Amino acid sequence: MAKIRVFPTDILTMRLPDFYIMLAQRKEASVNYMSQVSNDEAERLRSMRAEVSLSCEIRQGTRPWTRVTLHDISDSGFRIDWRPGFDERNPLYIRIPGLELLISQLRWKRENWIGCEFTHRLYPAVYDHIVRQSQLQG
């Protein structure tokens, strides 16, 4: 018969304050990127963002692929429908039809949307291809 180790409760709770401090620091560090840039830079980023409506698939870790709608995209990131279970600590993989697998990081969640940042900016030709593809599916 296997022995079960029981830890005193003070050992289990001893690290909780450190855990809560780490969570608070992580929350402060994940402030919306747009609030950290100058007005000119924010305007430039907004002008490069295109509204699209493309069906794509996302995945995080070993979870199954999930079909979502890509709502807007820029060379640095995108916005998709929110799905439960995704977190900002792990990379998010996105498959857009006709392109290679893209890797991103979850940056924000608002209402029913999540915003992600690509780990590598899209080349202008790839960005243009996605926008054109959306217009053709329109």
Describe this entry's structure for a reader.
This protein has 138 residues and is an alpha+beta fold. It has a domain at 49-137: Thrombin, subunit H, CATH 2.40.10. Helices cover 31% and strands 32% of the residues. It has four helices and six strands; from the N terminus they run αααββββββα. The protein has a six-stranded antiparallel beta barrel. A hairpin with a 6-residue loop joins β4 and β5 (102-110). The longest helix is centred in the N-terminal third of the chain and has 14 residues, at 16-29. Residues 1-17 and 19-35 have low confidence and may be disordered.
Spatial ordering of strands, largest sheet: 1-2-3-6-5-4
Share of helix, binned: 25-40%
Low-confidence stretches: 1-17, 19-35
The beta-strand count equals 6
First-last Cα distance: 64 Å
CATH architecture verdict of the domain at 49-137: Beta Barrel
Q: Could you give me the name of the CATH homologous superfamily of the domain at 49-137?
A: predicted glycosyltransferase like domains
Helix-and-strand structural type: alpha+beta
Per the CATH scheme, the topology name of the domain at 49-137 is Thrombin, subunit H
Q: Which assembly state applies to the chains in this document?
A: single chain
Radius of gyration: 19 Å
Largest sheet: 6 strands, antiparallel, barrel
Query: Please, how many helices?
Result: 4
| CATH level 1 class label of the domain at 49-137 | Mainly Beta
Q: How would the global form be characterised? A: globular
- Strand percentage lies at 25-35%
N-to-C SSE series? Answer: HHHEEEEEEH
Kindly state the mean pLDDT as a whole number?
Answer: 75
